[in-house]
């Protein structure tokens, strides 16, 4: 008996451990949705195709596997295209599957066709690879190549479409092959290079780990923990890799946003970079902080993509391979001669703990009486359960979070590289779906960001996700208010386009969409409100009015914490 094309697509994805589809069904996909549901898949339908892509991204980051996002022909694919670009810049392996009209319609010379654009050519520069299943018997080779490409080198999205007359065709095919039969699965590094790296580490005075976003996305935290303990070293977190690894939370410090991190960079003589592009947010490993102290430091780079070696800075020992394999290789090489703990490690731990405690105790009074953004971060994150997933969104609120964060979450999802607002709710939903709704999820977001896809609160309620959303409300695009003041000076423009209605109430909107809603206007009450919301087990939105002047850095735009350092990311400080 033959297998329909849509069934074969599901077979091939299941062989990779994929069991969730994000998207809005249409005639091209209703058969696939029914078949997926019968197989026990999660079928997650948002209220905008762009949000579907963000959900798929959040899912992929929590599973270490590609995610599937579908979009209807024409407008659906067009609306999802923004998330393709986000997935590309964020290095997230998402398979975008688009429908298309029958080729007889597409190839005619006609005007006025319904729900139609030439899709593949439009999106090919937004993905790593794109293809069309023109004939049913191409299904295996195209889907497998998509799975191969999205997980090889630097991970990223792929786009596949099929015309509507293909989906119902039947195939006579054998059972789906295991991934190891058609792609490299977690390849290791060259043994001589591993030995060379181990020798550098053994002879170092102050080796450090620079840990990026891919460590969380590959679920390799415990492997990196073992390496950190064998090296006796501190862990520097990139701004994209700020999920804490369980068991080594205290020895993990943010690059750029803590004095301890500055000291570690200056003293480091061997840097082992894992799961990071060594990009602009870490000054390419050669500018700003790296230009001080031990500037002759050696670099060991664990990287899957050979083309990345040496692009941003010279690399002394490239360990080309999947970090899930390479890190254990390095651990094995060091096990016979583990290093003693660095003599400054306990001092660094103590000083950074004192830094966080002092931040939480500062005077948070504001002239307006509204909540200080720093207090918003402190109280919300102090109340976050230890096992919670933390999703972040916003402009100024995210900048404040780098400084004031009081928790050490093991999973953090936010849009680091692309700098795209409005991703937070989709990321949080996708991450929670991947987790099976078991762990609590805290989304800290700003009002402007939250409004992008607020309709997906209905998805949170539909799946009864254990999510608490704390919204900082300044009734403005706060970061852009600061840009006006920095550019023209305080009071010299009306700051057009960045202020909006003060009558929006997110707690009431939440109730209208089936969630709980809470209004908290005193910072000291926020922690208790977050704790109570998690205890209730009900999806909850907490509306917190924050002081707009504090949020955008004061009338001279000089007081946002670490804002001057944040600006050094852009074009090496020149923006």
From TrEMBL:
GO terms for biological process: isoleucine biosynthetic process; L-valine biosynthetic process. Residues 393-544 form the Thiamine pyrophosphate enzyme TPP-binding domain. Transmembrane segments: none annotated. Its cofactor is thiamine diphosphate. One of its GO terms (molecular function) is thiamine pyrophosphate binding. Belongs to the TPP enzyme family. PANTHER family: 2-HYDROXYACYL-COA LYASE 2, THIAMINE PYROPHOSPHATE ENZYMES. This is Acetolactate synthase.
